[in-house]
């Protein structure tokens, strides 16, 4: 991989979880290169990433961060860890607490919770959401019936337990691990919450601390700059607000 002119480079796909890496880059206020990729607008691969993302990583997904030395890093948990470790010299986004709600082990636990436990519930709900939206009208009632079964039997109970857990963690606190600034937990979690909130597969009103946290994250100037730079909201089924 070619070196990147002394700056990290983000391979960014519009309307994707890469938006949260762009947010972190803007928070860090460091120089970086931004390569924008658009989702396919029509055809068999509609909404998928372009094949050109495979030129930098075999999975062809986004985000991909190309480091200053030319190494390609994927997975947001790794990218956020790398960026904060490398560029957050003031320690604004680092976890520094020593009690069990604010230490490094808790941060690791919550990044894992976001990526594994919460993501499984969110993706199950999103899959049925997309199936309903995309299936031909004559089988849609069948898909809707199966979706309801999955929600009643699994998704809704999991969401309730997981949102209650997050709501409790955020009680009296601005961000998951800190009252000052977001940390890796917030950068990783925000996209998952946004996807289920914006597509309305869950009602987040009963979890006011999560709602307030969401609103706080998207009110940050760095998030707003990232939205402008990332060309977000191109998709009709999942609109960034
Ligand atoms: N676990 C990966 C997920 C990356 C991922 O799946 N990105 C999606 C966008 S949200 C993507 O690139 N999809 C390409 C496609 O669907 O063709 C991460 O944390 O970065």
UniProtKB/TrEMBL annotation:
The keyword Ubl conjugation does not apply. The keyword Transmembrane helix applies. The chain crosses the membrane at residues 137-155. It comes from the Eukaryota. Residues 100-241 form the GST C-terminal domain. Keywords: Membrane, Transmembrane, Transmembrane helix. Residues 5-91 form the GST N-terminal domain. SUPFAM superfamilies: GST C-terminal domain-like, Thioredoxin-like. Gene3D superfamilies: 1.20.1050.10, Glutaredoxin. It holds the Pfam family GST_N_2. InterPro entries: Glutathione-S-Trfase_C-like (IPR010987), Glutathione-S-Trfase_C_sf (IPR036282), Glutathione_S-Trfase (IPR040079), Glutathione_S-Trfase_N (IPR004045), GST_C (IPR004046), Thioredoxin-like_sf (IPR036249). Belongs to the GST superfamily. This is GST N-terminal domain-containing protein. It comes from Xylaria flabelliformis. The lineage of its organism: Eukaryota, Fungi, Dikarya, Ascomycota, Pezizomycotina.
